[in-house]
Every structure is written in structure tokens, then in C-alpha cells.
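[Q] Does anyone have a clean C-alpha cell version of this?
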Amino acid sequence: MTSWIDTPAVVVDEARLQRNIELMQERATRHQVNLRPHAKTHKSVEIANRVLAAGAVGLTVSKPLEARKFMEAGFKDITLAYPVVVPQKLDLTLECALAYQVTFNLTVDSVYGAKVAAESAAKLDHVLNVLIHIDVGYHRVGLENDPRLRELVQFIQQSPSLKLIGILSHAGHSYGAKSREECIEIAETERLIMLRVKATIEALGSPISVVSLGSTPTELCRENYEGITEVRLSKWIVDLPKLRPGNYIFQDRTPVRTGVSTVQNVSLTVVATVVSSNAKHFIIDAGSKVLSADTVRGSGDFGGACYGLVFREEDFDQVTMEPTTNEWVNPSTGQPSLCFEIKKLSEEHGWVAHAPNAGPSASPQIGDRVVILVNHSCPTVNLANALFLKGDTLRHIQLISRGCCQ
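[A] Here you go.
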């Protein structure tokens, strides 16, 4: 079906995509939490509409320009989960939100950022909903229980143009978990930190309606949702938890290798063509302009230091778990098959190692098409002009926020 596509191409399996959307929504509904998925993962109107149709209450975005793109596309409930400290960026975004009548929530983690938000909202005679970003162990942005938290809460309380509606976290260190058990521990630690911070803020006189958590690995394995109101994945609703995963729709090697998902749930792959071969590698037409430079963690040595795993195109749909060696058994035939590591990237080329003790003759040959199980789907999408949705037919999905890093 993909024979007419020019490679390299980012391909999404429609059945797997829809199943992932429905399963995460069912999980959120069962635990009485709202789902606010990240749009940075797919960057498309079509997939945003799919998650909302399934029951998500809004979108999460990562940068002001991305927020404006989705506002202009007609989406009415958006959380910008990023500290915006440049006044012009926030001015433009808040003006856009008001022009398109969007419910817009902003995260802050400093008095400086809160001042920018307050001044921007005041200029437009608007009261802006804000959530305080909490550090739960990733140590990227956010506060925990320290004097700066009290100072920030008090500043927001005293600002007539800001309304504190909740707290938000991102357990990004879960992507480095080496096992499902470690990921479960990270998820529970995140929850407990958030409940402790919620109690601290409420003791200062500000009720917290939204407790918003979000990372795909933690939400694929979380066991306790008590006290959570949103997974990002979701819009806030009073007294309900919220979830904000994003990568759950596509998935990639990270949740598979950690043990919280399987290859059968991975809906996004890259199709490439073998363009050359030598004694050590065969060369594909997908390089660093297509594939993420991220590597993966997790148990096992095979696949741990590479930029993706390569399968023959005709084999990939039969792969259930990530192979632990070059050789794996195809369940439909009972016969051994091979997969290969992408060991090096240049701009337009991927260097794929031949299987040890097999040699070049056992590898895909020049002109053959291969499927790449990618390490990280989000940057892969950001590098693409469009996605190909593979269902009963094969068609384009246009991206509206590719490269929206401002």
C-alpha cells in the first residue's frame, strides 16, 4: 500500500492510532479524570479532532506560536504548558485567545513570569487563568515546596488580572525509567508531591481546582489516581483530576523498551529505502533530517545505543515485542527474521549495521523498503512536512504547527 509514497515518509497506522486514543480515554473516564492531550505530538487538526471526539476536554500545547495556530484552527480550550517570560509573545497569544473566544490557561513557575502574565492580561482588561508548574523530579522547570512557591502564590493572589486555578507537573524523567516498576514509582511520587503542594497552597488561602499531571510513560502505568484532576491530555473541570499525555497516540520505542507498552501499540513509523550498501552497513534515505537524535534507555544491550530499529516492510506488522537480539521469530510464519540497528546518522543518510554473523547478503538490499521503529515520535513529526495515514486508503494529514518553536 505504501509503494507510491516517496521515502522517507512518516506513516501512521490508522487502526492503531484510533485504538490508542480510545484506550487512553477509557482509562481516564474509568478513573474520573479529564484528558487534555498534547498537540505538540501530532501538530494536526485531524488528530486533535479525533481526541476531542473521543472525550478529551481540551488541548495542551508547548509554545505560544503553537497555541495561536490551534486557536486559529478553531480549538476552544487550550493550556499552554510552558513558562512564557517574553511580553510580546504572551500579548500576541492572549489577543488571539480573546479574538477567537478561546478558554486559555497559562503555566507559570516564577514571579517574573507571573508579572509578565499579569501585565499582558491587564492591558486587555482580562483575568487570565494560571497554573503553577511544579517540579516532581525532572528538574527542568517548576517549583516544589520552597520559599519561592509562597512568594509566587502571594503575588498571584494580589494580582487582579490573574486567577490561580491549579497546579501542573511533568514527570519527564519517566522516559529514562529502566522498567515498568520504576515508572510506577515515579508516577506515585509525582502524585504525592502534587497533593502535598496542593495542601500547601490551599493553606495559603487559594483553592486548587486543577491537579494536572502528564507524561505518557506514567499514564500508561499509573495505578493510583486519587487526588488527580487532569491528565494532559485534558481540560480542567472542578473537582476532577486531569491527565496530559501526548505521545500515547503514536508511542515509540521508549514505552515499549520500558515495558509499559508493546510494538503492536506503536502507530507511527518511518518508511525508508535502502540506497547503498557496504561491508559494515546498509544505508537508508532517512537521516538526521527525518529521525530524532534521541537514544533510548531501558533493559538490555541490543538497541540501547542506536537511533531506531529497522525491519523489513513485510515483517513489521507481525512484531509484538522489541527484539532483544538481531534475530526474532515471526509469529505468523514461525520462522526467524532479522531486525537491525541504526548506528549513525548524517543529514540525509542512516547507517544501519548488518546483523553480526549474517553479513550483507542477509540484510535488505538496495531498492528495498524498510520500516523504522523510532526512538522518539514527537521530534520525528516535527521534522516532517506531512503524515501519511494508513487505513483502508492512504492519505495525507497536514501539519499546522510544524517548527512552531517560538
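[Q] Thanks! Anything notable?
[A] The domain at 263-375 is CATH 2.40.37.20 (Lyase, Ornithine Decarboxylase; Chain A, domain 1).
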